[in-house]
Amino acid sequence: MAENDNRPGNTVTTTSLDREIGIRLKEHDARYTRGRRLVVATLAGSDGPKSAAELQANIGSSLPLSSLYRSLAVLGTVGVVVPHFTKKGVARYELAEWLQGHHHHLVCLDCGAVEDLALPQSYEEKVRELVEGIGSTVSFTPVNHAFDIEGICSRCA
Amino acid sequence: MAENDNRPGNTVTTTSLDREIGIRLKEHDARYTRGRRLVVATLAGSDGPKSAAELQANIGSSLPLSSLYRSLAVLGTVGVVVPHFTKKGVARYELAEWLQGHHHHLVCLDCGAVEDLALPQSYEEKVRELVEGIGSTVSFTPVNHAFDIEGICSRCA
DNA sequence: TTCCTTGCAAACGATTTGCATTGGA
DNA sequence: TCCAATGCAAATCGTTTGCAAGGAA
Questions:
Q1: CATH class of B1-96
Q2: Is the CB of A53 under 7 A from strand C?
């Protein structure tokens, strides 16, 4: 859980990750508390965005849901965590790109699970070109792109 | 599945749209009732996915929320309407691709509004290539791709 | 007449919040 | 010390559902 990963393209090790997050929180007069550390550690060890319920399942009842949500809220406004809304009524959270690296998602239409997907550099480049090209044709300022692929995961196939 | 779609840009006229939808509903032993017509007509006149509340605002209180949700549910299982979940706690609905044509979305990070975006043929081709290329590298069966661009809309800029 | 639909109100589930208590810098 | 953070319980909010009445084939 509190493990890190060294996938190419991924950025920060857990230790330096904690340091960075601590700094970020301090900048916002917020503390890096036990609950928040638990949330961050769990997210860092995940292979995709996790819902509040899933996080609590991993963490255990030592962290009440209300606290969990509050941790996610703070980490969100501080820019450490980003929410995703892939299925009705359930938000899923993951570490922001500056901590996790840029990636996309495989969203299972059946069970709703979401898995991270890192594109090869060459693909990523094409995606970026597309977004820029599009942005220049409309009165809209692109910030992110969410190139999610929906389908059926191996478990549900 | 009642196929159809005459490609570039938008597809079916409102009248033939109603006909197609009527058929589709009949195939599922469902009726094309007043409420369902109101929902379809409103969606057909929209420039992007709309939430239940937004739909009711356009339709008026002559259609209670519970009925509206039930209409959306039926139209959904029948394949006429597709839900999107872009913002916490609010689902947005739009007509399925076989009725509306394939397109993408501009999602405003500020106000949550979603606008349809049709890509030029050439772009669309590239996106399709990307998805196929990716699908062949993972144990996952792609069905759709959601190439949404998040940013700031002109009103919120 | 037979079912599908609708309305209303109550029920639900995910998320949020008030308030008193705890804890960290 | 002092204010942010936490826990619990109650409150919200979008959405769903039970049930009796309405409507189309």
A1: mainly alpha
A2: yes
